[in-house]
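Q: Got a minute? One more chain.
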Amino acid sequence: MWTERATALAAMLLLAAACAGADAKGESDPPPGRPSGPPPPLIFDPANLRRGVEVGELRVDSTDVVWGEGVGEWVGTVRFAGEIQLRGTAVPHLADPEQRITCFEADSASGRRLPRWPGDERRPWFCFEDPAAAARILGAPDSTRLRTIVVDRFTTVRAFTDAVNSARLLSTE
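A: Always. Here it is, folded:
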């Protein structure tokens, strides 16, 4: 009886070691119903954008996109229609804090749901179309306080200047 228990224990230990080794090498599949990691960023193809095309939870409302011959990349502005709920913090304007306006930086999960240009590695932040209303609703920038907001008209800009993405703030929780 003792040998049977010892053999069963040894088999379980070997199985556990094999599973741990597979996990360490990234060879095992995640448990059913659990994602294998964060979703990839939501990159759109500027060459194929047309009004009404869905990109994640949003759809293209308007585009002003051209191939930048001098830079070898697509540049321009894309505005999206649809509401999206985001979690993050109210922050000052990150490119020009002297402006003293309230902007918003999405957390990593929410930021991955915002459409991005190919090669856009900027932080997932934007300012609001109506800075005065955003200041009334959100108060002063406070990067320590997590908030959930709903925005629409998310607009992303790709230019080799200090252009900033924007959105219209609809509500906050």
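A: The longest helix spans residues 2-25.
Q: Perfect, thanks.
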